[in-house]
Amino acid sequence: MLRPLTRLTVSLRLARAPTHAHHGFPAAAAAPFTTTTAAPLKQMPPRPKPPPESDLEESFLKGSGPGGQKINKTSSAVQIKHIPTGIVIKSQATRSRSENRKIARSLLALRLDELANGDQSRTAIVGGAKKKRSDSAAKKSRRKYKKLAEEAAEATGKETTLKQAEEVDVEEGKAAEQEAAERVMQSETGNNTNAQK
Amino acid sequence: MPRLPPSLFWRARREISPMATYLLKACRDLESTANELRWIREHVRATPSPVFPGLRTWNLCERRGKGVPLQYVLGTQPFGNLDIKCRPGVLIPRPETEAYTLHLASLLSQEQQSSPAPLSILDLCTGTGCIPLLLLSSLLTPPAAPPKITIHALDISPLAISLATHNHAHNTALNLLPPPTPQTPHTLTFTRANIFHPLPAPPHHQQPGGTIDLLTANPPYISPAAFATDTSRAVRNHEPRLALVPDTSTSTLTDYAAAYNCLPQDIFYARLLECAAELRPRRVFLEVGDMAQAVRVVGMVLRDGGAGLGGYYATVEIWRDEPEVERVEMRRIAGREVGVRGEGKGRGVYLFQGDV
Ligand SMILES: C[S@@+](CC[C@H](N)C(=O)[O-])C[C@H]1O[C@@H](n2cnc3c(N)ncnc32)[C@H](O)[C@@H]1O
């Protein structure tokens, strides 16, 4: 059961790996990017289904400009509002408008699941596993970037200081976490394709 | 454009990354700067190269910071489920084009579900080939794949034709477009042609006298004056003028403007409606720049210059940016009630032989 909410804005940004994997046509050879399909998470609760389209109000966030040929925007942010609860989800995770629409719906499904199931929601359970993985990913990436920065400094003769390497490291740590979230989403969007096959 | 305050550059440096200071010059706010940096990094990660990733990222950020469109820097733009390659010299596909292309595909799919039949489509001014490629991919998605699809696309620019051909192969290799099979025979051909000359004879696989089910075109539709004042700098400085502004230095085009008594930015529509009158496609969709242009094009369809098109097409509509939104207002244009469909800015004129 859902508690009615006044208005709650959830804005999540997720890293994007190439999205080609999940719309593949079954007939031909496998896409070169199938590696983005994450190994299945063990004993995770099933993916919650997005609410029906009739419960959603969608808007595409764009500037006030003329649009079309006159401008060239790089992002296709999508915002959906779940009318029964008032929850608003915005996604600008990827450069793809189609992908952002799907991601916004998946995020909404997770959010509604959290509200309904609390500790037992998919996000709560997956969140525990995700933290463990990203902690170790961050450690690995710190070592890797220090080494790469040193090599680059030698190779190019450019001044690449360890401080710069550390800045990259912090960024990459964040990205690793975001990517983990993305893998969750991808394994979920993968379900759609499976249904098609 | 107003100068950005130095404090914003400091924040970009501190809150995002030193590389973000380059991007900020082109992106102009922290949110899109962070997004674009993330997409550049993902691109570097996803495309192997012997060059150190940090240096590649740096170079890409620098190019983007100089105002080059991100799609030219990364070489791609997602379009529906497709990955469209972009190269300088060919217009980058826009999200508005993606929205109506998907809507057209869903109308055709609905029709296929009730009465499956072979489909024939003609796209003029095809550029990257984004419109016919997305139509093909969407139409081939179950459950309503037509028994046969034949698509023919034309552009005057050799750069566009070679890029469109490459995009066809690229998306087939990525498995986003299926190769033709005996169960779903489909062909998509890209041919170099000036649409102001007689259109090339349909390729051998298209039966003579066969009807065209859909004619699409996103022609150059910006006036020279609006090009100078209304286009964004990335568009003006980096995208091909040939794709955006009808070239009024040639007599072919000025003759049309004179014969049809239309504005320079509307010249292509005069010719496109002539093609429609000749080919009588069952559906026509022409992209336009704004509501005023949409109204002028509807006027051209309905008046005598439209060669009786008004009588031929039972449905004449204007589509806004989001035509899938179920909202239609009626508007009286040239003595006829015309539906204005969807939400957003006026984006195109839709003609259909049948009733909606
Ligand atoms: C606005 S772009 C559209 C590209 C693509 N259809 C899209 O939606 O992204 C217009 C295209 O028309 C082409 N073009 C310009 N003049 C033409 C002509 N006389 N005959 C055929 N194509 C022409 C340009 O080369 C350009 O690719």
TrEMBL record, chain A:
Keywords recorded for this protein, A-Z: Mitochondrion, Transit peptide
SUPFAM superfamilies (alphabetical): Release factor
Pfam families registered for this protein in UniProt: RF-1 (PF00472)
Mitochondrion: is it a keyword of this entry? yes
Q: Supply the name of the protein.
A: Prokaryotic-type class I peptide chain release factors domain-containing protein
Which family would the database say this protein is a member of?
Belongs to the prokaryotic/mitochondrial release factor family.
**Disordered: region residues:** 37-77, 126-197
Q: Where does the record say this protein resides?
A: Mitochondrion
Please note every region of biased composition (Basic and acidic residues): 156-182
Question: Which Gene3D superfamilies does the UniProt record give?
Answer: 3.30.160.20
Q: Which GO terms describe its molecular function?
A: translation release factor activity
- Describe the location of the Prokaryotic-type class I peptide chain release factors domain by residue ranges: 52-147
Q: Which GO terms describe its cellular component?
A: mitochondrion
Compositional bias of kind Pro residues: 43-53
Comp. bias regions, Basic residues: 129-146
Locate the compositionally biased regions of type Polar residues. 186-197
Say which domain of life the source belongs to.
Answer: Eukaryota
Q: Does the keyword Mitochondrion apply?
A: yes
Which organism is the protein's source?
A: Trichocladium antarcticum
Share an example GO biological-process annotation for this protein: mitochondrial translation
TrEMBL record, chain B:
Q: Which GO terms describe its cellular component?
A: mitochondrion
User: GO terms for molecular function, please?
Assistant: protein methyltransferase activity
Q: Does the keyword tRNA-binding apply?
A: no
InterPro entries from the UniProt entry: HemK-like, N5-glutamine_MTase, SAM-dependent_MTases_sf
Keyword Transferase assigned = yes
Lineage top rank: taxon: Eukaryota
Q: Which residues form the signal peptide?
A: none
What are its GO biological-process terms?
Answer: methylation
| Keywords per UniProt | Methyltransferase, S-adenosyl-L-methionine, Transferase
| NCBIfam families named among the record's database cross-references | hemK_fam
Q: What is this protein called?
A: S-adenosyl-L-methionine-dependent methyltransferase
